[in-house]
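seq:
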Amino acid sequence: MNAFKLKRIYRNGLQMMLAVTLVSCSNDDGPTPTPTDGDVFTLGLGVTTAEATTNYVLHTNDLMNGKLSLVNAGFLQDGYRDFTTVGNYFYSIGGLGLTDVNTYYVDASGEVAVKTGLNLVDRVSDAQDLDGSGKTLLAVTLPASPADGTEMKFLTVDAESNTITRTQKIAVDNKNFPIGDEWMLHTGIAVRGDQAFQTIVPFDAVGWKTSKTNKTYVAVYSFPDFKLEKIIEDDRTGPAGAFGTRSGIFATESGDIYTISHSGYGYSQRTKDPAVLKISAGASEFDKDYLFKTADVTNGGRIVHAIYVGNNKLFATVSTGTQASQWADDNLKFAIVDLANKSITTVAGSPTFSGNGGRSFAAFHKNGKAYAAATVNDVLNIYEIDIPAATLRKGAQVDASFVGGIGQIK
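struct:
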């Protein structure tokens, strides 16, 4: 692996670009220095112009005050990027033809550094902490269509050495998966003991339509060798998760697993009410006694984006009202979802905002607080959410088009 100290990137014209596309930057806006002591938070940022979206990684020791600016700050990333955090490592993962990974961390001398050389080879559909221990990255690769290949891979990466330790492959066809003559989307994965559970959505990769929306589908594998054991189905709700969101399935500390179906963003048709299903601890079939219809409860709606925050709870964005179109990611509010008690609590003071569509949810949690971003009246801010109290504080303003990832590496 290659590791080197980062050098600050200065881009001519960046201040002008931000002024045109985002909030104007005054001449006395100072650069955001890379912190070398205290907390170190890492953000994956996107700046969108009429021509393209450019991605950056920015480090800060304060998410709650002032302005986070890319002027004379931030580290330019090649091409499209998605982001995830495993332990004290922040991953900038290439997409749309790129598969390389930049891994940011704080080295022994207290300097922010990057490891390069890790390449996941194929199109990455998911990347996450395998089990919450902060030691292993689990990545799933899946071609965008069968024209690009018919093999799905599960890769484990040792976070400390930044190397791939295992690669398992499986053929994607209608013998293994209930996709008929279509393709499929990976929408989430959860590992529990010696099994892994993957939510999938049958998908027309040519017309980008979802024609099979009457069931939830979960592929069950042995772990760690990822041998397909079976596909389980349930017709009480539709497929779990959606294109690119990676919020289809979550495992709890007790071993219960929940699938999240919303029938909103990413779906060309809606034939079932949004609902949560459960696979009980020790079981590998759906619990027929559990059904949580998320639109029918107080503060209810469609759980579009979510992360698991412990104690059977999700920190989520919940969409209400009529789904305007297949790719609308609108009318969102921050919420705390209690999966065991089948309840949704809207975070007090939450703005109503639009999401970033087919991306992993840019949020993380620590010590009872969750951190995420939202754009309100064309201004992008970080928000700190007190999970037990379901309240929030508005934090730093971010001079970018969107926050694609957020985490803490120290």
